[in-house]
Design a protein that fits this description.
FAD/NAD(P)-binding domain; globular; five-stranded antiparallel sheet; about 25% helix; alpha+beta; about 280 residues; Polyamine Oxidase, Chain A, domain 2; three-stranded antiparallel sheet
């Protein structure tokens, strides 16, 4: 549920360049979404499908709300974990930081596996066999509207999703489009430069709308190497003896709701298992 601010000569545009919307099936998640709706940080967006919702004014607004009750450290590159007695320490830039009773890895399977392997190989096996598909995402700001009446383009040969940014509730600012490539195309072009990918995505967008696309006045290209999970159906991973576990959509399925459910299920297991450090 990532969002990025992009400045241009026409002003500021904020793009949702990860998940484009979320749906609700589980009753627990339904209750959570109702709270977001009541706060005005989520809204219905029936354009892609009748039961779709988005964060307002950006998709990451609901993440900001969830994290607001916690002490969060941002922009810290964690390179490893060290176990000292009943405590964990994070290794950041070669130095150990703080001590923690428990550790949760909320990462893609491919990034979870090498960390878990060093501490609990049985848990790590679930991540080792999980695989994600990539996605190239292009964010483009134009100085005028595109020659199309469509606000959403989807499931084409190259483009899996493209949308006019201001078609979503609560969005404003210059005319921007998000263009996401299909997993197959992204995998075949994974190592191309962002500049090359951006040009190809613009060409594909022009082909789909049947008209030339103006040169963007601002753009940003992002490679999601681990974008779409297949889902393992495990729910979550937790070792109560070591107080280490993992959660994420890859443990259930490739939807925002699945990531939320995985985190909730892990939290329930953590609460049910007493902390060794507290005994």
């Amino acid at each position: 549920m990532a969002s990025r601010r992009l400045e241009s000569s026409a002003g500021l545009t904020t793009f949702d360049f990860g998940a484009q919307y979320f749906t609700v099936r589980d009753m627990g998640f339904f209750e959570q979404v109702q709270q977001w709706l009541a706060k005005g940080i989520a809204a219905s967006w029936p354009l892609p499908r009748a039961d779709a919702f988005v964060g307002v004014p950006t998709m990451n607004e609901v993440i900001r709300d969830l994290s607001s009750r916690h002490k969060v450290t941002y922009s810290a590159l964690v390179k490893g974990l060290v176990r000292h007695g009943n405590q964990w320490q994070l290794i950041c830039d070669g130095h150990a930081h703080d001590s923690f009773d428990g550790i949760v890895l909320a990462l893609p399977a491919e990034q979870t596996a090498p960390i878990l392997t060093l501490h609990d190989f049985d848990l790590a096996k679930a991540a080792l066999f999980a695989r994600s598909q990539p996605c190239w995402a292009g964010m483009f700001v134009f100085d005028r509207e595109l020659s199309t009446t469509e606000d959403v383009i989807r499931d084409c040969e190259i483009i899996v999703w493209a949308a006019r940014n201001n078609a979503k509730p609560g969005r404003s600012g210059p005319n921007g489009w998000i263009v996401q490539a299909s997993p197959k195309w992204s995998a075949a072009h994974l190592e191309l430069s962002p500049e090359t990918v951006g040009a190809l995505l613009l060409e594909a967008l022009a082909d789909e709308i049947g008209a030339a696309v103006p040169t963007p006045i601002a753009s940003s290209i992002h490679r999601w190497r681990y974008a779409l999970s297949a889902g393992t159906g495990l729910g979550c991973l937790w070792n109560p003896a070591l107080q280490i576990g993992a959660c994420g959509d890859w443990l259930i399925g490739p939807r925002v709701e699945c990531a939320w459910l995985s985190g909730r299920r892990l939290a329930e297991r953590m609460v049910a298992a007493p902390s060794i450090a507290a005994e």
